[in-house]
Each structure stands twice: as C-alpha cells, then as structure tokens.
C-alpha cells in the first residue's frame, strides 16, 4: 500500500488540533477548580526563589556541588535565612516545589493532614535494596508493616542493653591499641552499629570490628560476612543519590550498585532461610535464649521476601542514624571540655568508672534518669538530626496552614502531586525557639526550654514516628556511658573549621570523619 502524505496529513492535523483543544480546556478547568479552592481556603502565595537561571541548572549545580563538598544542609539553612521566610516556593525545571522549615507546616504534613501526603517516589528510590518495607510503602502496605513490626520494639526488648557489652569491649580494644594516636571514631561507630544491629536482627553479628584486629579472630564465619558491610554502605550511597534526584532517580544505575544489592540480599536470605526452616519449638527456644528480631518476625509470616525487606528496612534506619549521632556527640564533646567534664561527673556518680564501674546497674530505666546525658543527646540530635531534609508529595489539592502572604501567616495552596520539602535541620536552628545561640552546642538549654512541640522532631512525628526511637536512645546512652567510664581523657585532633562538613545521603554524618584521641 502506497503511503500518501497529502492524504494522511489532514487527519494528523485534525487529531493534533483536537488534542490541543482538549489540553487547553483541561488546563482552564483545572485552573478554575484550583482558583475556587484557593479562594475557599483563603490561600495566598509564598515568596518565590527566583535566581534559578536557564532551566534551573545553576541551582541544581549548586545543590550538587554543596552536597559533594559537605555543605548541603548549611546551604539550605542559609537559603531560608536569605529568603527571610519559613516557607518559600522553588520552581525546578518548571515544577513547583514547596520548601518549609515551619513547625506548623511540618506538623500538618506529618500528622494533622497525614492523609493528604504520601512518600512520592520513595519506593522507586529505595526498592532496589529495601523492597517493600515499612520505609518504602504507603497506605495499606505501610499500615500492615507497622502492625507487624511494632511488637518488636516493645519496652522489654529496649531494655536488653547487656548484648551491647561484648561489642563495646572490642570497640575499646581498638582505642587502647591506638594509645595516644589519633583515631577516626566515626569509622569505629559505623562498624560497631552494623555489628550490634546484625546481632539484634539476625541473631548473629557480622563482627566488622574484629576485622581491624590482628590478634583477635571473628567468633564466627558464614557466607557473605566480609562483603556485607561494604556492600550495604555502597548501596546506601547510591540510594541517597536516587532520593535527591527525585523523578530522575532512574539515572542512578550501574553494575556496582547491582552487585552490592545482590550481596546484601544473598547475605540476608541465608539467615531468613535458616529461620524459616526452624520448627515452632526451635523458634521458641531461640526466644528463650535471647531476643532475635528475625525469629520473632518468622513467627508472624513465612514469606521470605517480606521478612528480608522488613529486616533490611530496619537495618537501614537503625544502623546509620545511631552511628551518626554517636559521632556528632564525640565531635562536640572533644570541642567542649566543660560539657565533657560535667557529663563524666554525672556518669561516675551514677555508675562509677574504670574497674569500679557498676556495669550491671546500667539499664534502660537507670539511663533515663541521667538528666545531663539526656541533655547532651538531645542537643546533638537538635544540631545534627539524622535525616536533615525530607520530602512528601500531595495526594490531592490541599493546603499548608502557614507560608502564604507577606507575613507568611496565611494558608498556602499545595496542588496535587506537589512536592513539599521540609528541613528539620533548619527548624532546629530557629532562634524563635532556641534563642540567639541556636547555632551553638549548649546542652544546658534543655533544662530551660519549654515544650517545643513540632520545633523539635529528630525522630519524625505523627503516624510514621520512628518505631525504634527508644531503642536508639538507649543504645546511644549506653555507648556514651561505657566509653566515658573506660576513657577519662578526650582530645580533639581535627583543626578543620566549624561548623563541620556533613555528608547528606539518606542520613547525615561527618563528611571526613571525627578525629580524636581517647585515653584512660
């Protein structure tokens, strides 16, 4: 059949015209609908960040550059200060994005208007490693995950701090081996937390801390042990890049990423299959011998994929956040001798020190009674929240309670599919709530502050508040207490300018490490 352009062209022109008319009508109808919604709710527009350049590329380049150099969180904070507003609008590649540090807006997104917002692209960002778990799912899948996992973080399980002690002893061996030399304590904390987390989750630790000791062999060997920690770290780095690229996340894809994911999945499945092959009697025996997350989960489901995904979701959330917070605590303690001495006094008075340390008296309950220890941890979480920037996407036309108008006090319209980026890092630095010294590390402020509400949300809030909050706080408290009992002298060995460079991926930690010396 001969193709005749003169015959086909009129039909194409006709259909293009019809599509154009439909598009115009839809746009007009949508605009009218949104205008009515805006008028009904008394919405006004927020300030707009204008200096974007051609196709927003200069801003995107600046964001990527500041991320690579360790200044992303502080760049975002300085942008809010330059805007002179708690909420403003950015148009990236023509797409409207709402940026906010306002506690009332964060409260709306996470709690009071929870059903108006979802995770957006998060499942696509994280699924290559984490699959369908509590941190990647919305709706019914998320509710089912939370119901399944909530019992695993019951208070009696939080109280099991004694399982940390063998890992603390290996940690201390690294410090003693270093003598008065400089150590990167952040590197040790990341190894420590992957060791403790895998023991809690799988029933067997990967013992990465042992790999740095020539005179002590790991207690056990099993398939994938040596590759797991590094593969997990590399995968997380890729996931962080995917998250910040948002809709362009598909660009992050290469062989290394796939290999690392496969290593992690293969390692996890080894333990999952081991748990699934256990009889009910064997599962009960494991429970009586000591709490293991995996075996408790295996009592609820026999689906290996469900167990793998949930285990890895919890590992991702619990491991890096705890390591990062501990690193920031010792970073600040090394620069604030007064705080270090005051903290030691409380710990020694409560639990003793050195060979006289009453380790058996360090429990979930007794740690909670250490007020100054609590202040130090709160202050570290204020200045260095584990997740400094987060996102939600509107599931329907809705509003934020504030941000519109010249004074920023009017409601702000948020159209369906609009991304709302909120920065807890910036909120935690607002002088309105924390005073003129908000940029300083001063634990004493926690004895003075009134109830902060949504101006302090290091563990998120609302229905998706962190299930492992008390678990993490207990581990952090125990580690700080034990290290200060064993090592009485702390020196800063880093002359880098303050504030420190911070690596922001899925979570936040020091860009280059925390260099100190700890001695007895």
Descriptive report:
It is a single chain. The chain has a domain at 131-336 and 462-520: Cytochrome P450 (Cytochrome p450, Orthogonal Bundle), CATH 1.10.630.10. The protein starts with a helix and ends with a strand. With 520 residues, the chain is of the alpha+beta class. 54% of the residues lie in helices and 11% in strands. The chain has helices at residues 5-40, 57-69, 72-83, 103-112, 122-130, 139-149, 155-158, 165-178, 185-202, 225-245, 255-276, 280-289, 293-298, 304-335, 337-351, 364-368, 371-383, 424-427, 431-434, 445-448, 469-486, and strands spanning 48-49, 87-92, 95-100, 117-118, 183-184, 389-394, 398-404, 410-414, 419-423, 489-492, 502-504, 508-510, 515-519. The model has no long low-confidence stretch (mean pLDDT 90). The chain has a six-stranded mixed sheet with strand order 1-2-3-9-6-4. A three-stranded antiparallel sheet has the order 5-13-10. A two-stranded antiparallel ribbon has the order 7-8. Helix 8 (165-178) runs antiparallel to helix 9 (185-202), helix 10 (225-245) crosses helix 11 and helix 14 (304-335) packs across helix 17.
CATH topology of the domain at 131-336 and 462-520, which one? Cytochrome p450
Q: Could you state the CATH homologous superfamily of the domain at 131-336 and 462-520?
A: Cytochrome P450
Question: Would you report the number of β strands?
Answer: 13
Overall, the morphology is: globular
Low-confidence stretches: none
Distance, first to last CA:
91 Å
* Rg value: 26 Å
CATH class of the domain at 131-336 and 462-520: Mainly Alpha
CATH architecture verdict of the domain at 131-336 and 462-520:
Orthogonal Bundle
Question: What is the percentage of strand-forming residues?
Answer: 5-15%
Percent in helix: 40-55%
What average pLDDT do the residues reach?
Answer: 90
How does the major sheet shape up? 6 strands, mixed
């Amino acid at each position: 059949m001969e193709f005749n352009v003169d015959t086909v062209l009129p039909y194409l022109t006709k259909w293009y015209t019809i599509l154009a008319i439909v598009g115009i009508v839809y746009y007009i109808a949508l605009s009218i609908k949104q205008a009515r919604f805006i008028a009904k709710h008394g919405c006004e527009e927020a300030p707009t960040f204008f200096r974007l350049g051609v196709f927003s590329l200069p801003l995107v380049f600046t964001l990527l550059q500041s991320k690579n150099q360790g200044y992303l969180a502080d760049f975002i904070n300085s942008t809010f200060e330059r805007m002179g507003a708690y909420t403003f609008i950015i148009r990236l590649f023509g797409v409207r994005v709402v940026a906010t540090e306002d506690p009332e807006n964060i409260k709306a997104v996470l709690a009071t208007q929870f059903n108006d917002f979802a995770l957006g692209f998060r499942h696509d960002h994280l699924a290559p490693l984490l699959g369908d778990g509590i941190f990647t799912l919305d709706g019914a899948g998320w509710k089912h995950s939370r119901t399944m996992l909530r019992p695993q973080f019951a208070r009696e399980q939080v109280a099991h701090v004694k399982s940390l002690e063998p890992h603390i002893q290996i940690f201390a061996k690294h410090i003693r081996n270093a003598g008065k030399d400089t150590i990167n304590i952040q590197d040790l904390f990341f190894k420590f937390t992957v060791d403790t987390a895998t023991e809690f989750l799988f029933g067997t630790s990967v013992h990465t801390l042992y790999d740095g000791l020539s005179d002590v062999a790991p207690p056990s060997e099993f398939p994938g042990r040596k590759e797991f920690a590094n593969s997990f770290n590399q995968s997380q780095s890729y996931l962080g890049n995917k998250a910040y690229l948002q809709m362009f996340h598909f660009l992050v894809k290469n062989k290394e990423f796939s290999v690392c994911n496969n290593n992690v999945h293969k390692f996890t499945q080894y333990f999952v299959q081991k748990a699934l092959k256990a009889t009910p009697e064997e599962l009960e025996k494991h429970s009586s011998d000591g709490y293991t997350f995996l075996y408790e989960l295996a009592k609820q489901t026999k689906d290996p994929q469900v167990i793998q995904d949930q285990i890895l979701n919890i590992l991702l959330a619990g491991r890096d956040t705890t390591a990062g917070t501990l690193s920031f605590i010792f970073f600040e303690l090394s620069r604030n001798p007064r705080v270090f001495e005051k903290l030691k006094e409380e710990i020694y008075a409560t639990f003793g020190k050195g060979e006289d340390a009453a380790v058996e008296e360090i429990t979930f309950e007794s740690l909670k009674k250490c007020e100054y220890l609590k202040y130090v941890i709160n202050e570290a979480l204020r200045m260095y929240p584990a997740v400094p920037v987060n996102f939600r996407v509107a599931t329907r036309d809705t509003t934020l309670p504030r941000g519109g108008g010249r004074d920023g006090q009017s409601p702000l319209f948020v159209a369906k599919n609009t991304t709302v980026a909120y920065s807890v890092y910036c909120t935690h630095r607002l002088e309105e709530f924390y005073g003129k010294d908000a940029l300083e590390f001063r634990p004493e402020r926690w004895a003075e502050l009134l109830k902060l509400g949504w101006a302090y949300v290091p563990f998120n809030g609302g229905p998706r508040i962190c299930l492992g909050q008390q678990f993490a706080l207990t581990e952090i408290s125990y580690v700080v207490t034990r290290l200060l009992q064993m090592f009485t002298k702390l020196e800063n060995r880093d002359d880098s300018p303050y504030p420190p460079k911070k690596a922001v991926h899925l979570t936040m930690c020091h860009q280059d490490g925390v260099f100190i010396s700890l001695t007895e």
